[in-house]
């Protein structure tokens, strides 16, 4: 008689067989992928159908296909297999490094903002924690967070679907006009919207920033020329410096470490850009998250 732990291993194996049959449609190929004998795979396929009381597999033209019941079960099998693989990866990382891997996703503007703080030094000083950071658009980051592929998201907008998530506003930052360091506008005491009309602009594509800039432009009642759009703060700095154009960015993403650009008070009225932290409610180590989030500002 199998122990309870052995029973769970067999159940996971059956679900993996179901997923692999859908992929390869041949018992031999599934057996090779699992490094098992073909009769063993066939035995587990029949066992699944007997235990659940439904036909899951059907032979057609020399191949094996999932029945309607098998296709209904497939998404659940895929999710369970993916979760098990992720759990194995996390345990392997822990075993090899003896450190917790914390996966953080940021938009580019959020990354630039925390780069100007002491956050990196604070996180690197945490015992038994290894940080993995990646950048992406807000919606993609939230999708990965919901799918348990990230542990923490830092970006400029709260999640649209917060049913499984917690979020917190970390800071708010005014928008600033970005100009080349030696630009004539730096010598003006006070700017008015008409001062900007003759210059080209470079826009950051990040949604939360782009929306605020669009609102600011609308209330100016001036049509400002946009020469190019970039997905990184660094590329904005380079374009402004090299081409002599202007840009609008949150102040928290400044200053430029290389001193290529200056930032001025933005004429007209503009809303503040906010930085949010978001994480899953069921994250296994909430104390660690609070420590990481608390060290940002």
UniProtKB/TrEMBL annotation:
InterPro entries: LysR_HTH_N, LysR_subst-bd, WH-like_DNA-bd_sf, WH_DNA-bd_sf. PROSITE patterns: HTH_LYSR (PS50931). It comes from the Bacteria. Transmembrane segments: none annotated. SUPFAM superfamilies: Periplasmic binding protein-like II (SSF53850), Winged helix' DNA-binding domain (SSF46785). The keyword Transcription applies. Residues 10-67 form the HTH lysR-type domain. Keywords: DNA-binding, Transcription, Transcription regulation. Belongs to the LysR transcriptional regulatory family. This is LysR family transcriptional regulator. It comes from Cohnella endophytica.
